[in-house]
Amino acid sequence: MTYIEHLNAFNQWLESNTLPVNAQLMFFKLLNVFNKAGWPELVQVDNLRMMSMIGVEDKRSMFRARDQLMEAGIISFKKGTKGVPSRYKLGLVYTKCIEYCTPSGTPSGTSSGIECGMANGTHIKTKTKTKKTPSEFNSSEPVPDSKPPVILLPLNDGTEYSVTEEQCHEWAGLYPAVDVIQQLRGMRGWLLSNKTKRKTSRGIERFITSWLAKEQDRGGQRFRAGKEGGDPYAGIEF
Fold first, then answer.
1. Res 8: pLDDT
2. Which has the closest alpha carbon to 80: 53, 43, 35, 38?
3. How far, in Å, are 56, 59, 99, 129 from residue 136 at the CA level?
4. What is the structure's pLDDT at 145?
5. Measuring CA to CA, which residue among 78, 5, 84 is closest to residue 39?
6. What is the pTM of this model?
7. Angle (nearest 5°) at CA 40 between 34 and 44
8. Cα separation of 43 and 90, whole Å?
């Protein structure tokens, strides 16, 4: 289970339960300690460190926040001895919550519409809904089809970058003087002809926007100049 899943599970628990701010902060800090330690069963945190972590100077405030987490079943706690810090463990209520409030804990064939309504460790209320297969959708609930890419731009690793219709609309708004589709065709032709200068998956979008920006600065005349006999890519470095 990932750190993000733990955070999401606790936040979902808070949607139907209440905890004072200091208690919430203490648990978030404890999750960070567990995460850095590789999610052991127990972590050790001395009182002074815990007070610093949650930003309180009074031990009683720290004790109160800890007691509130224990009463809610979110943590269990064992008092330390001289030279041995106090030890914290994720509580039974919380461990039950993460079984039901995370994708990995969602029962097979059901949605994750779970309400972690566990007050003082008493119960878990779940709402499950069977997922519909495509054949079960009626005409009022069409199964969405993925749109094909507008164009594919070859990359240096042999794969191709898919340009979506949404991207074309966005670039058309950013570069109004440019015929975006025609320029994308020009890019594909240039990349096919210049295999050693093809871009990485990370660099291809920068390549596209740089090309369009330069075309915008030229007033969208590059291809027109090419038709008149000039080199449409003269003076442009890629």
1. 84
2. 43
3. 56, 59, 29, 14
4. 52
5. 5
6. 0.44
7. 65
8. 10
pLDDT score for 96: 67
Taking a C-beta distance cutoff of 8 angstroms, is the pair 23, 68 a contact? yes
Residue 127 DSSP symbol: -
d(CA 68, CA 22) in angstroms, rounded, equals 9
Angle at 96 (CA atoms; ends 93, 100), nearest 5 degrees:
135
In this structure, which amino acid lies at residue 229?
G
Contacts 24+ apart (CB under 8 A), 63-72: 64/20, 64/22, 64/23, 65/20, 65/22, 65/23, 65/25, 65/26, 66/23, 66/26, 68/19, 68/20, 68/23, 69/19, 69/23, 69/26, 69/27, 71/120, 72/17, 72/19, 72/23, 72/119, 72/120, 72/121
- Look up residue 183 and give its amino acid: Q
- What sign results for the dihedral spanned by CA atoms 37, 40, 46, 50? positive
8 A C-beta contact, residue 24 and residue 56: no
Q: Where do we find the tokens 């330390």?
A: 80
DSSP code of residue 136 = G
Q: Which residues of the chain have pLDDT under 50?
A: 104-115, 117-127, 137, 139-143, 222-223, 225-230, 232-238
Tell me the per-residue pLDDT of 42-63, one tens digit each, with 9 for 90 and over.
999 998 999 999 998 888 999 9
Cα dihedral sign, 45-46-52-55: positive
How far apart are the C-alpha atoms of 167 and 172, rounded to whole Å? Answer: 8
